[in-house]
Write a structure and sequence with these properties.
- By secondary structure, this protein is mostly beta strands.
- The protein has a domain of about 120 residues: Hotdog Thioesterase (Thiol Ester Dehydrase, Chain A, Roll), CATH 3.10.129.10.
- Helix content is about 10%, strand content about 30%.
- The protein is built from 2 helices and 6 strands, in the order ββαββββα.
- Strands 1-2-4-5-6-3 form a 6-stranded antiparallel β-sheet, covered by helices on one side.
- A hairpin with a 4-residue loop joins β1 and β2.
- It is globular, with a radius of gyration of 16 Å.
- The protein starts with about 40 loop residues before the first strand and ends in a 19-residue tail after the last helix.
- The structure holds Palmitoyl-CoA (PKZ).
- The site of Palmitoyl-CoA (PKZ) has 23 residues, from α1, β3 and β6.
Length: about 180
């Protein structure tokens, strides 16, 4: 983590604490409701530059016998930290992401992921997150079962312009969202 981290302002467009966040893109594998294979994660805003996300660990997310696939958990962390960046009011993409897997997460669990912005340096947004099992076979809301850190980069609309012809569907804008 750099020494010269700045503390950004919370964007006025970010929902009030406890409010549900809109999907950032309806076809997103992490949160979109127009993505049949997706994880349909949902998020509420925290008090600051933070969010809490929810993931139901379905049977299709199995990696090892009876437990979540590490790549699915990594995706959930990516989504959660990206959604925390919504508090900046500008688009971001993931540049780097790392995960520590501390405990097995059984199928049938409901995970809560709390993610936040730790600070920014120019276009770089440093984030962190932790996951807890809040419902299911081994639920313990006090136990952290996995943690993650990531670096996001703020980007302009031109970033998505380059790939818009590959979109499955016809968005009216790169940031089109579904209503909550
Ligand atoms: C208006 C409201 C809108 C709301 C809307 C919100 C949407 C918000 C929700 C999103 C939620 C989505 C959650 C899923 C998010 C994905 O899954 S995004 C998909 C996966 N990621 C990608 O596809 C990104 C692919 N990579 C790239 O396009 C480019 O490498 C990047 C990341 C844009 C960076 O390229 P660049 O812009 O040319 O940046 P560059 O000038 O090279 O570097 C800038 C700085 O970053 C550093 N840097 C760049 N990459 C790295 C790296 N990997 N490691 C360390 N440092 C790095 C550089 O060293 C440099 O540092 P400084 O010199 O400033 O100290």
């Amino acid at each position: 983590m750099p020494d010269d981290l700045a503390a950004p302002e919370r964007a006025p467009s970010f929902p009030a604490p406890g409010g549900q966040l809109p999907q950032h893109w309806s076809k997103c594998f992490g949160c979109g409701d127009d993505q049949p294979a997706g994880m349909t994660m949902t998020f509420v805003a925290g008090e600051g530059l933070d969010v809490t996300g929810r993931l139901e660990v379905a049977k299709k997310y199995q990696g090892g016998p009876g437990v979540i696939h590490g790549g699915i958990l990594t995706t959930a962390f990516d989504e959660a930290q990206g959604m925390a960046c919504m508090s900046l009011g500008t688009a971001v993409v993931t540049g780097h992401l790392e995960v520590d897997f501390a405990r097995p997460i059984p199928l049938g669990s409901v995970l809560e992921i709390h993610a936040r912005i730790d600070g920014t340096v120019r276009r770089k947004v440093y984030t962190s997150a932790e996951a807890r099992i809040v419902s299911g076979p081994t639920a313990d809301p006090d136990a952290v079962v996995a943690t993650s850190r990531a670096l996001f980069l703020t980007v302009g609309a031109e970033h998505f312009e380059k790939v818009k012809n590959f979109v499955d569907g016809t968005p009216s804008s790169p940031f089109e969202t579904s209503s909550v």
